[in-house]
Design brief:
8 strands, four-stranded mixed sheet, 2,3-Dihydroxybiphenyl 1,2-Dioxygenase, domain 1, about 15% helix, alpha/beta, about 130 residues
C-alpha cells in the first residue's frame, strides 16, 4: 500500500496556491475549490480543498529536503516567514516550522537515515 495524498483545508484558494508555488511545488490540478500539487522530488502529491466555513486543522504536514538550511534561506529571501528556523530535535530530525496562509502547520525537515531507521526502531510487527 502507498499513501496517495494528504488534503489540506484552506480559506482562500488563490492565496494558498501562490504560497505553495512559492515553496517550490508544481500545481497539477487547478479548480476554484480544489488544487493538487506534486512534490519536486519523488512521486508524492498533496491537495488543497476550499472551505467556506470556519475550521481548525491540528494536523502537521512534513516535507523533507536534504539541504534544509539552503531551502529555508531561499524561502526567507522570497518573504516566507518561519515560526522556527531549522533546529535539531531530540528525535534526531532537523526541522523548521511555518504556517500557510490558512494556518496549516508545515514542518520542513531533514532526517536522513533516522526517518525510517531511528535508533529506537521497533521490530517488524504484523
Amino acid at each position: 500500500m502507498e499513501l496517495n495524498k494528504v488534503t489540506l483545508t484552506v480559506k482562500d484558494m488563490d492565496e494558498a496556491v501562490q504560497f505553495y508555488l512559492c515553496l517550490g511545488f508544481t500545481q497539477i490540478v487547478d479548480t476554484p475549490h480544489y488544487s493538487r500539487f506534486s512534490c519536486p522530488d519523488g512521486n508524492s502529491t498533496f491537495s488543497l480543498s476550499l472551505e467556506n466555513d470556519e475550521f481548525e486543522n491540528h494536523s502537521v504536514i512534513y516535507f523533507e529536503h536534504q539541504n534544509l538550511e539552503k531551502l529555508c534561506q531561499n524561502l526567507i529571501d522570497k518573504g516566507v516567514i518561519f515560526e522556527q528556523q531549522p533546529m535539531e530535535q531530540r528525535y534526531l530530525w532537523k526541522e523548521a516550522i511555518l504556517k500557510d496562509p490558512s494556518g496549516n502547520k508545515i514542518k520542513l525537515y531533514w532526517a536522513g537515515e533516522n526517518r525510517l531507521n531511528p535508533p529506537w526502531k521497533v521490530e517488524k510487527r504484523a
